[in-house]
Specification:
Keywords: Hydrolase. The chain is of the alpha+beta class. It is built from 16 helices and eleven strands. Helix 3 packs across helix 6, helix 6 crosses helix 14 and helix 10 runs antiparallel to helix 11. It is globular, with a radius of gyration of 23 Å.
């Protein structure tokens, strides 16, 4: 018997069958579990969720004086029951960058926690909750649809400790943006995002001392790492996830078009479009992110290096990927023709070479300047980008605060001039 009750009537020993509301409103990755931890009970009551479903056949029943808002016989009845309030329509209207950044910041933190819990549950042998994973991927896709640069740019600022979890979130967002650049349908873009979110689930089978090793891996350790695509593919199958795109991206995101990479087998056109997309998105986020053994590279420099790696990426997919991010992705530091350094804050639909920037430093006076927003593609604008600059050389500590408008954003920059 399933009962829908108010969160204040939830108590230890109950079996939580589901939360009434968005996954963003509650602090748990999984929807179904036996409530045994007092801290979990406190988190439920402190969340934005006001009602939950409990299964009294698997856990404690409600107290006689509890508020029971709905009582049904089985799960099918829950699925068919009309909710108290209709779900809100998805807001997919284009959103200004500064507006979407605030929403994306909250979404990024929630998605990070969701993926961390998903990985932890998988390590403990619990099944992946496909419905929640789909909801996370869908909300990420919505954010990218409203504004392609906001969440993608924020996701790049992950710490080494957060890498494993936020990498999945970032690849999800990058896959959606790339799919839209390639002209794929909305359904295909969402499928690409779902595959990106789950592509690295096989890493739960890599010992943490190998996954987080600060130095070079031994041959034996790298052999273990190379198994994570196969293990992830099997985990998805075992969880009943038969989504063809997710399985394909999980298994083949480390394959190169020239046939190298792992697992052995496919090459060139034998690799699906989604697999080739996954390979580009996975590498870009990896090299621009802080890792236990190195700081992330500047985004513009990363695209330049990726373009030089012959045989690794599908050329058409990579060119579309560059267009989806811009020649100078958000967060890139550039030198302008007026002698000022500026950080890219947004792409211009008129020109890949003329983004919207904020000035931060005068190379002529050697002093900081009050940030000025300049659309380099605007009619009559005579200022141009001369070249990209290495942030490590200039050491501007609040660079990420300037482009994002979010206080406290910081990252360490690697010297990419080598």
């Amino acid at each position: 018997m399933l009962k829908r009750i108010h969160v204040q009537d939830v108590r230890l020993g109950m079996y939580i069958h589901g939360f009434v509301g968005s996954w963003l409103d509650h602090p748990f990755w999984r929807n179904r579990f036996l409530l045994e931890d007092p801290q979990d009970l406190a988190r439920i009551r402190a969340s934005a969720v006001r009602e939950v479903w409990i299964d009294v056949s698997k856990g404690a029943d409600v107290a006689p004086d509890a508020t029971v808002t709905a009582q049904v016989a089985d799960e099918q009845a829950v699925a068919q029951q009309t909710p108290a309030e209709p779900p809100p329509e998805r807001d997919l209207a284009p959103t200004p960058q500064e507006v979407e950044l605030k929403h994306a910041y909250r979404l990024l933190n929630s998605a990070r926690n969701a993926v961390a819990s998903m990985f932890q549950d998988a390590r403990m042998g619990r099944a992946i909750d496909q419905a929640v994973a789909q909801a996370v991927a869908s909300d990420i896709a919505d954010s990218v649809t409203r504004n392609g640069g906001a969440l993608i740019s924020l996701a790049r600022l992950k710490t080494a400790d957060d890498y494993t979890y936020l990498h999945s979130v970032a690849v999800c967002a990058l896959m959606v943006a790339l799919a839209r650049q390639l002209g794929l349908s909305d359904a295909q873009a969402r499928a690409a995002g779902f595959g990106g979110l789950l592509h690295d689930i096989g890493k739960v089978d890599i010992p943490l001392e190998i996954l987080n090793k600060p130095g070079k891996l031994t041959d034996e350790e790298f052999a273990i790492v190379r198994e994570h695509p196969r293990r992830g593919w099997q985990r998805l199958r075992d969880a009943g996830i038969d989504d063809a795109v997710a399985l394909d991206v999980c298994l083949h995101h480390h394959k190169r078009v020239d046939g190298r990479g792992y697992p052995e087998g496919l090459a060139g056109d034998a690799l699906s479009l989604m697999a080739r997309m996954g390979a580009v998105c996975d590498v870009y986020d990896a090299i621009t992110s802080n890792r236990p053994y190195k700081a992330g590279w500047d985004p513009a420099e990363s695209l330049k290096r990726m373009a030089s790696w012959q045989g690794q990426f599908d050329e058409r997919v990579f060119q579309a990927f560059v267009r989806s991010l811009g020649i100078y992705p958000v967060g890139s530091l550039v030198l302008l023709s007026n002698g000022r350094l500026a950080v890219v804050v947004e792409q211009s639909p008129r020109s890949l070479l003329k983004p919207v920037v904020k000035t931060v430093f005068s190379t002529r006076s050697g002093e900081r300047v009050v940030p000025e927003r300049i659309d380099l593609s605007a009619p009559g604008c005579t200022v141009q980008v001369v070249q990209r600059e290495d942030p490590a050389r200039w050491k501007i500590p609040d660079l990420d605060e300037i482009w994002s408008g979010i206080p406290g954003l910081r990252r360490e920059y690697a010297d990419t001039r080598a």
